[in-house]
Amino acid sequence: MAKKRTKAAAKPHILEGGRKRVLVVLFVPSVERDGTTAIDQQFWVDSALEMFGRVFGGATAYPKAKGIWRDNERGGALVVDEPVVMHCYTTPADIESARNLAELGRFCRRMGYDAHQGEIGLVVGDEYFAIHDFAEE
Amino acid sequence: MKTQLDMHKIAKGLGAERRGKVAATGGYFGAMQLLADVKAQFRVPDGGGRPTDPRWTERRLLPLAPRTLKRLEELTAKVREHGGANVEPMQLAALLLERTTEKLSEDEAEELVRPKRRASR
Predict the structure, then answer these.
(1) What is chain B's pLDDT, residue by residue, as a tens digit (121 residues)?
(2) Angle at B94 between CA B33 and CA A52, to 5 degrees
(3) Residue A32, phi then psi, degrees to nearest 5
(4) Any CB–CB contact under 8 A between B18 and chain A?
(5) Chain B window 90-109: which residues touch A at a Cβ cutoff of 8 Å?
(6) B8 vs A: CB within 8 A
(7) Helices (H) and strands (E) in chain B, counts
(8) Which of B7, B23, B36 shows the shortest C-beta gap to A62?
């Protein structure tokens, strides 16, 4: 005897918490573009956590890492720093929201400008984004 | 099925330049991320004992293949070797399960549990 099929639409969600599947990675630098002047990294880590929490629902800041960045606009000078890598899991809808993107972009530009950076790096999903122009929109 | 993100819209909204695809879930980066997760989440309980994640209050029996357990044992040995974190194989399993369920979409989960081939009758 054939079993009665249940409609897919009537099924309960298998994983209620499975919607946050887009990873956003932000690098918080430790030095200015000159490679020697320290920035207030803790302030920017705390500010980024607050922003990610408020806009996207949460984030994790990892311990300091070792990093290097080639500044092509300064003759290829190598900037060595100790960035803090931040991870934020969010939803496709939240990351594509114009309002949320504007807030995230605004934060990156403020950090880039105030901390005298050459570039702010951001990974969204499987793509790397670079922010160079720190002028307020 | 994965939802495709509109990367052009994201770049425009951020005021950023698209620089290309990345793969940051495996290899050394993935291992270091795992180690950082362990260090960030695990705490020694108030009453003493092995460090664990205080949010892990539920306990369930989890069936798994011997080769999976072996792999977990190898991974925890590596974690101990590189970072000194004293993590047990099933603690690592819980951490991996937590991370995967956060990232997995409902569609992907359904695809995983759906039988590959249907019986004709």
Answers:
(1) 456 889 999 999 999 998 887 755 554 456 666 666 666 677 777 777 777 888 888 888 889 999 999 988 988 887 777 665 678 888 888 888 887 787 777 777 777 777 765 554 4
(2) 50
(3) -75, 175
(4) yes
(5) 101-106, 108-109
(6) no
(7) 5, 1
(8) B36
B18–A13 C-beta distance less than 8 A: no
> What is the rounded distance in angstroms from the CA atom of residue B82 to the CA atom of residue B85?
8
Chain B nearest C-alpha distance from A99 (Å)? 8
State the smallest CA–CA distance between residue A39 and chain B in angstroms.
23
Q: Which of A96, A66, A119 has the alpha carbon at shortest distance from B19?
A: A119
Strand extents, DSSP E, chain B? 17-21
Write the Ramachandran bin of A125: left for phi over 0, alpha for psi from -120 to 50, otherwise beta.
left
How many angstroms from the chain centroid is the CA of residue A31?
18
